[in-house]
């Protein structure tokens, strides 16, 4: 899973020192968590699931289906079929694991408590059956640095899910890491609206996420990146778009992501990168780009990218990139291509071209035969036309004759006399 990679904050400015300390501590907690959960799971295996507590508890106590460690400031309510967030979370909680539950909906203020959970820095909601995240679901969590919503079938993500219900006030969210891997609902392709657009709206709202350092959006079937999805995330250092279905980056701009350090685009459907994208990536001072396992199309449009690849240091593992199309170029290494290799065949494939040529020849033959028949029959046609002309003439002369008879009074008299 992409989430397995290094999550610690990268080198940054002094203002973030406190946050980094929190995250380092968090890293220590999660690395030491296997023993922690092993020791505590036996003790609470018997706790009843139905008793999802709604009664307030004394501070320092632990919600019934959960395991708490005040020393580690950690609460784990893992694989408990919980249908709602426990109300009585202890105020010391810094790391909250609510994974493997059945939460369905995260309502507004799902974690708002009196007094607030002022210490909560890392919230893991992965695999908890969340289908709907309401506006301001993470409100009143002033220290929340890391949020993992992965592996939830998010049918509805409010555009102000991360920014709070006071979207007009551009209060920055404290979030630094937002992990949204595999949040595409099942059968989303049948759905009318754009999943990409829904996620993008939540990432843009009110510039609340301008402090975000890490954004993971892997395995979401993204077909495209909405045009402005990154413009409100100027602090991004790590962007993970692995295992989507991105075909092109032509509409998205990386220009303002001057802090970007890693850009993961492996396992997408990219065919080529165009000049503008290449120039933008080249202009970012710290970035490393990962492009493996894309179906690169090695035709004349690939020339700029190959030229760039040969010179750039930006792409990690660039020697591994190979062509997928056209057929004759399959598995050729991009770096070893010469411009003479990269040409654009006419649009039609060879087989279809020959069949069109054949059709043309057949049509021409038919036309020629038709003309030949006409030529061979020229005497008959001449005769036929003469016949028609004669017939017309006879006919017309008949009319003419009768007209003259009717028009001439003498002849009229004559004829009438002759009747006598
Ligand atoms: C959670 O619910 C599922 C099905 O409803 C059940 O199979 C499983 O045993 C439950 N887990 C716990 C920990 O109660
Ligand atoms: C999750 O909860 C809903 C009711 O809120 C229930 O219908 C469903 O069966 C539960 N799923 C599991 C796997 O327990
Ligand atoms: C959240 O929990 C899941 C399941 O235990 C785990 O795979 C994931 O790495 C956790 N996320 C973070 C950010 O630690
Ligand atoms: C929105 O912000 C204003 C002023 O910052 C505050 O008075 C108001 O209570 C907030 N509303 C909500 C719903 O938080
Ligand atoms: C799809 O969305 C459009 C507007 O966004 C709406 O008019 C249309 O009725 C929707 N179709 C279905 C099948 O929901
Ligand atoms: C890639 O994404 C698909 C669909 O989202 C998922 O089923 C699959 O497990 C992912 N593969 C990896 C290696 O993460
Ligand atoms: C980049 O930032 C500048 C100023 O900070 C802004 O004017 C411009 O619109 C931004 N461009 C993009 C594509 O976000
Ligand atoms: C891309 O840029 C290179 C050099 O900057 C230039 O030679 C080339 O013509 C450009 N390609 C396109 C399609 O504009
Ligand atoms: C590319 O051209 C160079 C010299 O121009 C030649 O040495 C090399 O073999 C060529 N490579 C391919 C794959 O044709």
How is this structure best described in words?
With 420 residues, the protein is an alpha/beta fold. It has two domains: 349 residues, Leucine-rich repeat, LRR (right-handed beta-alpha superhelix) (Alpha-Beta Horseshoe), CATH 3.80.10.10; 68 residues, no CATH class. The chain is 29% helix and 11% strand. The protein has eight helices and 16 strands. Strands 1-2-3-5-7-9-10-11-12-13-15 form an eleven-stranded mixed β-sheet, covered by helices on one side. Helix 4 links the parallel strand 12 and strand 13. The protein is elongated. The N terminus is likely disordered. Bound molecules: 2-acetamido-2-deoxy-beta-D-glucopyranose (9 copies). The site of one 2-acetamido-2-deoxy-beta-D-glucopyranose has 8 residues, from strand 7. One of its GO terms (biological process) is negative regulation of canonical Wnt signaling pathway. It holds the Pfam family LRRCT. This is Trophoblast glycoprotein. InterPro entries: Cys-rich_flank_reg_C, Leu-rich_rpt, Leu-rich_rpt_typical-subtyp, LRR_dom_sf, LRRNT, Wnt_signaling_inhibitor. Keywords: Leucine-rich repeat, Membrane, Repeat, Signal, Transmembrane, Transmembrane helix.
Biggest sheet details: 11 strands, mixed
Q: Kindly state the mean pLDDT as a whole number?
A: 81
In whole angstroms, the N-to-C terminal distance is 121 Å
Overall 3D geometry?
elongated
The level-1 CATH class of the largest domain? Alpha Beta
For the largest sheet, list the strands in their spatial order: 1-2-3-5-7-9-10-11-12-13-15
Segments where pLDDT lies below 50 for 5+ residues? 1-16, 18-57
Q: How many strands in all? A: 16
Residue share in helix = 25-40%
Compute the number of structural domains.
2
The ligands found in this model are: 2-acetamido-2-deoxy-beta-D-glucopyranose
Question: DSSP strand (E) fraction?
Answer: 5-15%
**What Rg is obtained from the alpha carbons, in whole angstroms?**
39 Å
Listing every helix as H and every strand as E from the N terminus to the C terminus, the arrangement reads: HHEEEEEEEEEHEEEHEEHEEHHH
Supply the helix-strand structural class.
alpha/beta
Instruction: Please report the number of helical segments.
Output: 8
InterPro entries: Cys-rich_flank_reg_C (IPR000483), Leu-rich_rpt (IPR001611), Leu-rich_rpt_typical-subtyp (IPR003591), LRR_dom_sf (IPR032675), LRRNT (IPR000372), Wnt_signaling_inhibitor (IPR052286)
Transmembrane segments: 356-376
Protein name: Trophoblast glycoprotein
Signal peptide: 1-31
